[in-house]
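Final report, closing paragraph on structural work. Over the funding period we assembled a curated collection of sequence-structure pairs, and we close with a single example.
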Amino acid sequence: MAFLKFRIKRFIYLLIAVVLLSGCKPKKRVIKSPPHYNFAEVQSVKLDLKLKEISGLAWDADRDEFLAHYDESGHLFVLDKATNVITADYKFAGKGDYEDVAIYNGVPYVLRSDGMITKIIRDSAGIRGVEAGKLNITGVNDFETMYADTARKALIIVCKNCGMDDKSKVSAFAFYPDSIGFVSNPVYQIDAAKIKQMATEAGHQKTSKFQPSAAGIHPILNKLFIISSASSQLVICDLNGNPESVSELGEKLFPQPEGLTFKRNGDMYISNEGVTSRSTILRFVYKP
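Its predicted structure, as stored:
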């Protein structure tokens, strides 16, 4: 009988230990997806090694194809709409720190990190790049983001790090291709301090300064989506840069997000530079 009591006590102690240990296990963090999308439902395509450092992505709705470019190369790549395989490779300029590509009125434009925009001309003679304009503001400035704003009839470039900004704000500038070119005063300024506060309140792991690396206007929601690779964030703003929501970008799915574009049906495409492997384009289906 004493032996049986010992066995029962031992079983109870083991059961208590298991319960206590299971309660000590850290809870798995669940990253919340942005409105109308589900990060758990993703279609991922690996890209050619020529695009390992893809830093700009745009959907050309008129030609039914993607445009992309390599970070340090003056080459514009055409990607198949379904497979993302390179179907054409055009040299538009010499080597340089090219950061983003956007399409305005059917014409591609490429942004260099110093604020210079190159217009890509496609005609019977082939493809070539011509300097469209350069933003001249004081200080050391670094740009990675450009998108088309058809309502403003402009291309908007957004600072990653600009001398005129501090930790609490991020400036954006308008370039008007059909008229006056660049305007040196900001078209709007993003409240980076508010974004940090929103991320902190949501319990995000990274709350470093918001540094835009890609952006685009949603074709259905008419909201501005901005990616910050440095702080692993996707921020949704109104068209004047006022933050409305902040979503965390998990590093497993988004190791280095540098490109963002939309199809007309609202599907979102985000490109990652290759960090330890090949670069990728991720597709997220729009859910009304």
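Residues 223 and 238 are 5 Å apart (CA to CA). The domain at 31-284 is CATH 2.120.10.30 (Neuraminidase). We thank the funder for supporting this effort.
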